[in-house]
Amino acid sequence: MLHRYAQEMYDRYCRFCGTCEGKCPGDVAIADVMRYAMYFKYYGREKRSMELYAALPPRSRASTCDRCPGPCNTACPFGRRVRDELVEAHRLLSFAAA
Length: 98
Ligand code: SF4
Ligand code: SF4
Fold this sequence. Notes:
The chain has helices spanning 2-9, 30-42, 46-55, 82-93. It is mainly alpha-helical. The chain has one domain (2-97). The protein is globular and about 40 Å long. The chain starts with a helix and ends in a 5-residue tail after the last helix. Residues 14-20, 30-31, 34, 76, 78, 80, 82 line the site of one iron/sulfur cluster.
């Protein structure tokens, strides 16, 4: 059962390794954005996660990911849908960063 759980969760969470960041033509701080989204969604730290996101330099936020074909997707060794995760993260976190 644990093995099946591990398989099902394999591409569901970010390891914050930063491997995908090398493929971004911009300067999106992917691992940091993923971490803040985790604080928002799972730790009940909505306000703090939004503050952290707002403190990133504008170019490091995921504000342009919805207009990008997402070359970062192919770079994640864990097969995560990086671009879609970032689009969602920006939607959650950007209220305070606008
Ligand atoms: S979707 Fe595009 S802009 Fe956003 S992190 Fe991936 S490569 Fe960079
Ligand atoms: S999305 Fe994948 S490659 Fe990018 S930081 Fe997370 S685990 Fe690493």
